[in-house]
Specification:
With 183 residues, this protein is an alpha+beta fold. It contains three helices and nine strands; from the N terminus they run E-E-E-E-E-E-H-E-E-H-E-H.
Length: 183
């Protein structure tokens, strides 16, 4: 984990509080996690921050790592639709502190699709956070919404943060518990 010098100014989100902060060109950061197109970096005074995929170039990185689904800028409204595509896309949304995606962490409580009159799909997602008051909730909610919106056939996406039932480690997939050494 070598320090990286930012090639341009970029806005980051402080972890875990969710506050926005602008880092300047030339500031040095250390990338601690690069998953799903976003980056967790250590900034001054040991604080952690998240750099969105749209700002990957400030780190000299590609926003779409090989093997990851790429999100287009505009919503896709035509094509065959399968709810599994939604779950696969949600697997590219990662907790910025834990190197596990929101599906395997058990943060996705409900994921349903409803056919709209225009033939498109409305996807409704209920998700939680690992802790109440997590400042990253809005960031992860927006990332989930914007990624799912790019799936062909999806014309509307609603993501709601819920707290009931409270999240606990029993909601994690076996693979996530194994990855984190929780057996």
């Amino acid at each position: 984990m070598q320090p990286v010098e930012l090639t341009r100014d970029c806005v980051v989100t402080l972890i875990p509080g969710g506050e926005r902060l602008q880092l300047g060109r030339g500031e040095r950061v250390v990338v601690t996690q690069a998953l799903g197109g976003s980056f967790t970096v250590q900034i001054s005074r040991g604080r952690l921050a998240r750099i969105a995929s749209a700002d990957a170039d400030a780190l000299g990185q590609d926003a779409h790592p090989q093997g990851q689904p790429q999100a287009s800028v505009q919503p896709a409204v035509s094509g065959a639709f399968d709810i599994q595509q939604v779950l696969d896309m949600l697997r590219t949304v990662y907790d910025p502190e834990i190197p596990v995606n929101v599906v395997d962490l058990g943060l996705i409580y409900q994921c349903e699709a409803r056919l709209l009159a225009d033939g498109g799909q409305r996807v409704e997602i209920k998700m939680s956070m690992t802790a109440p008051g997590c400042g990253m909730g809005d960031v992860l909610k927006e990332e989930a919404r914007s990624k799912v919106e790019t799936i062909p056939g999806v014309s509307e996406v609603e993501v709601e943060i819920v707290w009931d039932p409270p999240w606990d480690q029993s909601r994690m997939s076996e693979a996530a518990r194994l990855q984190l050494g929780l057996f």
